[in-house]
Design brief:
The complex is a heterodimer of chains A (287) and B (260). Chain A is mainly α and 287 residues long. In chain A, 79% of the residues lie in helices and 0% in strands. Chain B is built from 8 helices and 10 strands. Classes of the chains: A mainly alpha (287), B alpha/beta (260). The structure holds adenosine-5'-triphosphate (ATP) and magnesium ion.
C-alpha cells in the first residue's frame, strides 16, 4: 500500500501539469482574439492568466473545475436544483436500480445457459448482438417506448443501465458457473448430489471471483447507461442533464465538473464492490 | 472364499467414440471382488484401469457386459451411496476448510448436524489430520490434502472404497507412510477396497489380490492372490515371499507388453 503512494502521486502531478498546459494551448486563441479586439499586446504571463480564468474556456483549468464543484456541492443545499449532489443522486439511483436489475438478469440468463442446451445454443449470439448496437441509438427508443407505455422517471433510465450492465454479468457468470472441472462434477455424482446441491455448493461458490470481476465492469457500464439515459429525454435532473445543459450554453466548467463527479462516483462504486469482493473472498478462504 | 461378491463384472466391454475413431478401453473384463478384499489394479498407462473403476462407480457406462455393485446395478449402488471414490487429485474445494470439505458429502447426504461434527472429527483423526479442521486446503501439503480427500471418502457409511492412484503424485516416503496408514484403516473399517496404482511394490504391499491389466484393448491378463499375511509391517517388502509376488506381477506386466 505505502509503496504505491509515490507512483500514484507522480501520475497525478503529471496529469495536472499536462492539463494546465493544454488549457493554455487550447484557450490561447480566444485570449488572443479578445486582446486583438481591444488592441492590447498580450505578454506570456497575461496569456496564461487569461487562459486559466476564462468564463467559457474550451478546456477549463483544474482549479476552475474544483471551485465549481465546491460551489455546487458544499455551498448549495442538497435539495437545490443547482446542487451537484442532488443531480448525482438522481443519476446514482438510476444506476443502482439498473445495476441490480442487470445483475439479476445476467445471473438468470447465465443459469439458463448453463442448464438449458437450447438456451446455450441460441441465446448467446443474441446477447452479443444486443451489445453491438450503439447505446446512443437505442437509448432514445427505450425512453420513447416506455414513455408511451406510461412509464417515465427512474425506470426508463434504469432500463438502459440494465441493458448495458447485464452483459458482463452473463459472460462472467457463464464462465464462472462452468469453471468447476469434470472431476469436481464427477465427485458430486459419486455422492449422488442433486442438481440444486451441485449448484449451491459447487458451481455458485466457484463462480464468485468471476462474478465480482463482472460486477465491477457492470457497475461502470450501468453508470454510463444512466447518464446516456438522461441525454435524450430533455431531462431536467441528473449528471447527464447537467452535461447536456452545459453543452447547450457552452458552460464547459459545468460539463467538466459533472464529468469529474461521474468519474468519482464510478470510482467509489467500483471501489465499494472491490471491498465487498475482498471481504467475501477472504471469508470464503479464496483470497 | 465363501464370502459374497461385492462387485461383480461380467464380460465388460467399453468402447469410447472419439473423433479419431473408436477406442476400445475395456474388452471382456470379468472379475469378482469379495467383501473385505483389497484389490489392486496395475498396468501400463491407457490399459483401462481408471475406466474400469469408473464403471464400478457408474461414472462411465459399459457398452457391453454387466456390472453389479452390492448386488444391484452400478447406478442404483451410486444412488444408494454405496461407495466412496478417491480421485487422483485431492480436489478439495478451496473455499471450504478441511473440516468443511470432509463435511461436504455429509451435508449432501443429509446427516444430522451433530452426527456430521462427530464424523468429521473421527475421520480426520483416522487420517491423522486432527487439528487441521479449520485450515484451508492451500495451507496443507499435497500429502495432507490427499489424506483429507481420503477422510472425505470415509466420512459416510459406504462399505466400498474406490481409489484411483491416490498417492501417485506423492514422494516415496510420504507414500510409504500413507500405505501403512491405509492398511491399518482397512483392517479397522473392514471396507472393500479397489485401488489403482502404477507401483508394483505398492500393489503387492497393500493387496489381498492383484489384477494385472494390459492395453489395446484394455483387458485383464493376470489375477494374483497374495500369500502375504494380513499383518504387514513395511519391512515385509524385504522378504522372499514379497519379492516373489512382485516378480510375478512384473512378469505379468511384461507379458502384456509383448504384443506391442
Ligand atoms: N472420456 C474418454 N473419451 C475417450 N477416450 C477415453 C476416455 N477416457 C479414457 N479414454 C481412453 O480409454 C483408454 C483407457 O483409459 P484409462 O484412463 O482407463 O487408462 P488408465 O489405465 O487409467 O491409464 P493411466 O494409468 O494413464 O491413468 C485410453 O486409451 C484412453 O485414451
Ligand atoms: Mg488412470
Amino acid at each position: 500500500m505505502k509503496g504505491s503512494v509515490l507512483p500514484v502521486l507522480t501520475v497525478v502531478c503529471g496529469i495536472f501539469v499536462i492539463w494546465y498546459a493544454a488549457a493554455v494551448w487550447l484557450n490561447a486563441t480566444w485570449a488572443y482574439d479578445k486582446a486583438a479586439r481591444s488592441g492590447v499586446e498580450l505578454s506570456t504571463q497575461m496569456l496564461i492568466a487569461d487562459a486559466w480564468s476564462q468564463e467559457k474556456p474550451k478546456l477549463p483549468a483544474p482549479h476552475q473545475v474544483a471551485v465549481e464543484i465546491w460551489k455546487t456541492t458544499v455551498e448549495k443545499k442538497i435539495t437545490s436544483k443547482r446542487s451537484l449532489i442532488y443531480h448525482s443522486w438522481i443519476t446514482l439511483s438510476a444506476t443502482l436500480l439498473g445495476f441490480a436489475l442487470g445483475t439479476a438478469l445476467g445471473i438468470a440468463l447465465a443459469v439458463g445457459i448453463i442448464y438449458n442446451r437450447t438456451m446455450d445454443r441460441s441465446v448467446m449470439p443474441w446477447i452479443i448482438a444486443s451489445q453491438t448496437i450503439p447505446i446512443l441509438a437505442i437509448a432514445p427508443m427505450i425512453i420513447v417506448v416506455l414513455n408511451a407505455a406510461g412509464i417515465s422517471g427512474l425506470l426508463p433510465k434504469a432500463t438502459i443501465s440494465m441493458y448495458l450492465s447485464f452483459f458482463p454479468v452473463v459472460v462472467g457468470m457463464v464462465k464462472g458457473l462452468r469453471s468447476p472441472d469434470q472431476m469436481q462434477l464427477d465427485q458430486m455424482r459419486t455422492w449422488s448430489a442433486s442438481g440444486a446441491q451441485t449448484f449451491w455448493r459447487l458451481r455458485l461458490p466457484a463462480s464468485m471471483p468471476y462474478l465480482f470481476t463482472s460486477l465491477k465492469i457492470g457497475m461502470a457500464a450501468s453508470l454510463v447507461g444512466a447518464i446516456v439515459g438522461e441525454l435524450p429525454t430533455g431531462a431536467v435532473a441528473g449528471l447527464g442533464a447537467r452535461l447536456l445543459a452545459g453543452s447547450y450554453y457552452g458552460q464547459t466548467i459545468q460539463i467538466w465538473s459533472a464529468l469529474l463527479m461521474a468519474a468519482a462516483l464510478a470510482a467509489a462504486l467500483v471501489g465499494l464492490i472491490g471491498l465487498i469482493q475482498r471481504i467475501t473472498l477472504s471469508r470464503m478462504g479464496m483470497a | 472364499m465363501s464370502k459374497e461378491s461385492v462387485i461383480s463384472a461380467r464380460q465388460l466391454d467399453l468402447t469410447f467414440r472419439t473423433s479419431d475413431g473408436p477406442v476400445h478401453a475395456l474388452k471382456d473384463v470379468s472379475l469378482d471382488i469379495k467383501r473385505g478384499e483389497f484389490v489392486s489394479f496395475i498396468g501400463p498407462s491407457g490399459c483401462g484401469k481408471t475406466t474400469f473403476l469408473r464403471c464400478m462407480a457408474d461414472l462411465e457406462h459399459p457398452t457391453g457386459g454387466e456390472i453389479s455393485v452390492n448386488g444391484v446395478s452400478a447406478e442404483e449402488a451410486r444412488r444408494a451411496r454405496a461407495y466412496g471414490y478417491v480421485f487422483q487429485a485431492a480436489g478439495l474445494y478451496p473455499w471450504r476448510t478441511i473440516g468443511g470439505n470432509v463435511r461436504l458429502p455429509l451435508e449432501i447426504m443429509g446427516y444430522e448436524r451433530s452426527d456430521q461434527d462427530a464424523r468429521v472429527k473421527r475421520v480426520l483423526e483416522l487420517v491423522e489430520l486432527d487439528g487441521f479442521e479449520r485450515k484451508y486446503p492451500w495451507q496443507l501439503s499435497g500429502g495432507m490434502q490427499q489424506r483429507a480427500s481420503i477422510a472425505r471418502a470415509l466420512a459416510f457409511d459406504a462399505d466400498i472404497l474406490l481409489m484411483d492412484e491416490p498417492f501417485g503424485a506423492l514422494d516415496e516416503i510420504v507414500r510409504d507412510h500413507l500405505n501403512e496408514q491405509l492398511l491399518k484403516l482397512w483392517a479397522r473399517t473392514e471396507k472393500t477396497i479397489a485401488f489403482v496404482t502404477h507401483s508394483i511394490p505398492e500393489a503387492v504391499y497393500l493387496s489381498t489380490r492383484i489384477v494385472v491389466m494390459s492395453p489395446r484393448p484394455g483387458r485383464i491378463t493376470d489375477v494374483i492372490e497374495s500369500p502375504l499375511p494380513a499383518e504387514r509391517p513395511l519391512e515385509i517388502r524385504d522378504t522372499q515371499a514379497f519379492l516373489d509376488v512382485a516378480h510375478r506381477v512384473r512378469e505379468g506386466l511384461r507379458a502384456g507388453h509383448v504384443d506391442d
